[in-house]
Design a protein that fits this description.
Blueprint (H helix, E strand, L loop, with lengths): L3 E5 L4 H12 L5 E4 L6 H8 L8 E4 L2 E4 L1 H9 L3 H6 L1
Parallel strand pairs: 1-2
Antiparallel strand pairs: 1-3, 3-4
Helix pairs in contact: 1-3
């Protein structure tokens, strides 16, 4: 299974939705809670090419984007193969 990293905050509905999809797929994602570790937000912004919103999702070091991007990958049938790498 590919390494999955999600930058998220506890109050974010989009974060909860993305994490629920990953949990449904039985993916053990590493979650970086930027509301608890604010110094990690700068890391997220740099890794996400300037994107400041959460969630920011990375699969196998590839920047996926946010929740809508993750859901679109799943709808197109491209998420499961990416997770298997």
């Amino acid at each position: 299974m590919a390494e999955v990293i999600v930058y998220a905050t506890h109050a974010c509905g989009y974060c909860r939705r993305a994490l629920a999809l990953l949990q449904q797929k039985q993916v053990a994602a590493q979650i970086i809670w930027v509301d608890q570790e604010p110094h990690r937000r700068a890391e997220m912004i740099q890794r996400a090419a300037g994107r400041r919103t959460v969630p920011q999702i990375f699969i196998a070091q590839r920047h996926i984007g946010g929740c809508d991007d993750l859901l679109a990958l799943d709808r197109r049938g491209e998420l499961d193969p990416l997770l298997r790498n």
